Amino acid sequence: MSAWLEAQRSLQGGPAKAPANAEEAMRRGLAFGGDYLGIAGDWWRIFAQGPAGAPGMAPPAAMNLEPLRAHFIELYQRLFTPEIAMAAVAQHPAAGMAAAGARCQAAAQRFAGQVVAIATDAFRRLSTELATTDATAAPITSLRELHELWIECGEAAYAAAAHGDDFAEAQAELLAAFVELRFEQQRLRA
Amino acid sequence: MTRLAIDPARAAVEMTEFCGRLAAGAQALAALDVRADGCSPRDAIFRIEKTVLWRYQPMAADAGLPPLVICYALVNRPYMMDLQPDRSLIRGLLARGLDVYLIDWGYPDAGDRELALDDYVNRYLGACIDQVRAARGCGAVNLLGVCQGGTMSLCHAALHPERIRNLVTMVTPVDFHTADNLLSKWVRKMDVDRMVEVLGNIPGELLNATFLSLLPLKLSLRKYAGIADLADDPEALANFLRMERWIHDSPDQAGKAFAEFIRWFFQDNRLVRGGLSIGGQAVDPRRIECPLLNIYATQDHLVPPSASRPLAGLTGSRDYTAFEFDGGHIGIYVSRRAQELLPQAIAGWLTGR
Q1: Which runs of consecutive H residues, i.e. helices, occur in chain B?
Q2: Across the interface, do A179 and B217 touch by the CB < 8 Å criterion?
C-alpha cells in the first residue's frame, strides 16, 4: 500500500519522496493493521455463524459476505482516490480540473470495484478451504498457518481476476485519469 | 466440518508473541545502517553522460576469456548483481577468472526525457563495448544481458553482430505476448504516449507499485510478516533491509525510451513478430549468429519462462543453450543455489567457446 501511495504521490506532483519518518511509518502501519484486523474480525463473525445466526460453521455458499464488501468498498475507495489531486480540484474548480477530478473519482470507483470483488472472492475461497470435507486436508492449528492459507487464497483470487480484460482496463483507466488530472494541474501552473 | 483446529488460548499467546517479535524486528531494522550499492572492488573506467562503465578488480587468475560486459535493465539498479559478498553473481564470475564489466545507466532526470532506445542500445551500450574492446585489444566481447537489458543486448547483437563473441541472456523477455505474462496484459491497455507527453519521465515509484502489484499479498503481507521470524537474527535483518533498499531504488525512466520499449516490445511484440527498427536500422534477430546461452527462471512472476524460451529458433545462431533455473526472478540473483549454479554455468559455457 505504501508503494501504491508513493506512486500516487509521484503521479500527482506531490513531494518527490515521502520523508523517512519513523512516526509516519508507524502511523501507517497501525492504520493498516487496524483495517486488516477489522476485516479479519468481520470475516470470522460471518464464518463462525450459521446463515440464521446459529452457532456453527456456515457452508461457504450460504455465507453472506455483504458486510465484508461494505468494509472493502470504504477501504479501497479511500486507497485509490488521489488525495493530493482531489485537494487541487477543490482549490481550482475550473471546468477542466473538475472534469478530470470526476474522471479520477469514477476510475477509482471502478478499480475499487475490481479489488472489492477480488477480496470477496478471496474470503470465499478461504472459507471453502476451511470448510473442506477432504479428511486428508491438514488441520490449521495456528494463526500463522491460517494467515498463510489466506495469502494463498488471496493470490489465487487476484490472479483469476488480474489476468482478465476488465481488470487491465480498469487499471489503465485509473492511470489515464491520474495523468489527465496531472495535465490539468500543469495547465493551471502554466 | 472444518480444518480449523486453533486453540483460542494458544492463539492468544501466539498473537502476543508474534506482535512482540514483529515490533522487535521493526525496531532492529530502524536501527540498522545498511549500505546497498554493490560490494566488490571496482573502478569506473568510462563515462558517457550519466552512464558509467565499471570494471571489477580481479579475484583470481585470468581465465583467458574475452571480457564479459554485463548490460543490466533500465529499471532498478545494477548492484543487484553484486548485492553482498555471499550473494553476488559478479563475485562468482570473478572467482572463475573472468574479466567483468558492468554498465550502470544512472538516474535519468528531466533533461533526459528525449533519450530514445537508440541512445541506450546503440550509443551508450555501443560506446561501453567499444571502450572494453579498445582497452583489452579484442575484436569482440562476451555480453551478458539481464532482464530488459537482455532484450536490449539482443537488439545490439542483431545490429552489431561483429562486436559480440558470445551472448548470454538472463531472465530476458523475448515473446511479450505469452498467455501467462500478467505485466504485459496490463501494459498493453495503457496509453503510454500520453503518459510520457504529460509526465515526461516515468516515475520509478509507479514502476515499483506495478511490480509489487503482480503478487500483492506475497510481496507485501507475507514478506513483512516474515520480519517477525528474523527479529533475533541481525544478519538476516541486514539482508532483508539491503534487498528492500534495492527493490525501492527505482530510477525514473527516460520518457521517450520508455514509450518506445512499451510500444515496440510489450504492445507490438516486434522482436518476435518483426518490424522492429532502432535508430533507423532494422533489428533482425537472425543476424545474431554467435553462440547463445539463455538463462531463465521457472517460477519467474515478472518474466515468465514462456517469454524467454522463444529465443530458441529466433536467431541465426546454431549454438543455442537453454539453462533453466528452478527459482524466481529475484532468487536467480541472490539465492544460495543461484550462487552455486549460475557463475559456474556461465563461466563453463563461455570456456567452451
Answers
A1: 8-31, 89-95, 117-118, 125-136, 148-159, 182-187, 192-199, 204-213, 223-225, 227-230, 234-247, 255-261, 270-273, 305-308, 331-334, 336-351
A2: no
User: What's the rounded Cα separation, in Å, for the pair A186 and B262?
Assistant: 25
* All cell numbers assigned to A120: 470477496
Q: For each of chain A's 190 residues, which pLDDT tens digit applies?
A: 566 666 666 766 655 554 456 666 667 667 777 777 777 777 777 777 654 444 455 556 666 777 777 777 777 766 666 666 677 777 777 778 889 989 998 998 899 899 989 999 998 999 899 987 788 888 999 999 999 999 999 999 999 999 999 999 999 999 999 999 999 988 888 7
C-alpha span between A101 and A47 (Å, rounded): 39
Contact B306, B180 (CB under 8 A): yes
Place of cell 512516526: A23
B320-325 and B87-88: which strand pairing? unpaired
d(CA B213, CA A167): 12
Give the span between the Cα atoms of B230 and B224, in whole angstroms: 10
Please confirm, yes or no, whether B19 is among the known catalytic residues.
no
From B191, B206, B218, residue closest to A176, measured CB to CB: B191
Residue type, B120: Y
CB of B62 closer than 8 Å to CB of B99 = yes
CA Rg value for chain B: 21
Helix ranges (H only) for A131-164 are: 143-162
According to DSSP, residue B202 is labeled B
Round to whole Å and give the CA distance between A91 and B188.
35
Q: Which of A141, A149, A165, A167 best tests the B interface by mutation, with the highest count of B CBs <10 A?
A: A141
- Could you give phi then psi for residue A81, rounded to 5 degrees? -90, 120
Q: Which residues of A touch B32 (CB under 8 A)?
A: none
- In single-letter form, the type of residue at position B288 comes to I
* Phi and psi torsions of B203, nearest 5°: -60, 135
Query: Which residues are paired to B55 by β-bridges?
Result: B43, B101
The residue of chain A with its CA nearest to that of B228 is: A144
Q: How many helices (H) and strands (E) does chain A have?
A: 7, 0
The dihedral formed by the CA atoms of B163, B167, B172 and B178, expressed in degrees to the nearest 10: 100
Query: Collapsing DSSP states into helix, strand and coil, what is residue B88?
Result: strand
pTM: 0.89
- What one-letter code names the amino acid at B19? C
CA dihedral B6→B7→B11→B12, nearest 10 degrees, is 150
DSSP-derived secondary structure for B13-80: HHHHHHHHHHHHHHHHHHH-----S--S-EEEEEEETTEEEEEEPP-S----PPPEEEE--SSS-GGG
Cβ distance B217 to A143 less than 8 Å, yes or no, reads no
Determine the distance in angstroms separating the CA of A117 from the nearest CA of chain B, rounded to an integer.
15
Which among B75, B85, B53, B92 is positioned nearest to B242, based on CA atoms?
B85
**Contacts with B227 (C-beta within 8 Å, 6 or more apart), sequence order:** B22, B25, B26, B29, B237, B240
